[in-house]
Amino acid sequence: MAKKKPAKKPVASFIVKSAVQEFAKKNKMMVGSDSYDALNLKVEAALKGAAERCKNNGRKTLKAYDF
């Protein structure tokens, strides 16, 4: 059987865990411990993409339309 790759860890934490838990609770769901890293990676990817677009447009300020 093939070994599983270890999950990539995000560079920094971009989310508030309690807010994610509150959202899940309001929707009658639970949050798995691995969900936080996955969500952080998604946010990190979105930020990197927005930063790249911002730089390509000659700006230093992220704007909503960069996302």
Summarize the structure.
With 67 residues, this protein is mostly helical. The chain has helices at 17-26, 33-56. It is 51% helix and 0% strand.
What do you see in this structure?
The chain has 67 residues and is mostly helical. The chain has a domain at 34-67. It is 51% helix and 0% strand. The chain has two helices and no strands. The chain has helices spanning 17-26, 33-56. The longest helix has 24 residues, at 33-56. The protein starts with 16 loop residues before the first helix and ends in an 11-residue tail after the last helix.
Strand content: under 5%
Name the structural class. mainly alpha
Quick check: average pLDDT?
Answer: 90
Helix content: 40-55%
Radius of gyration: 16 Å
Spell the H/E element sequence: HH
Q: Using the alpha-carbon principal axes, give the shape.
A: flat
- The separation of the N and C termini measures 40 Å
Instruction: Report on the biggest sheet.
Output: none
Which features would summarize this protein structure in a list?
flat; 2 helices; mainly alpha; 51% helix
Topology, please?
Elements: H1 17-26, H2 33-56
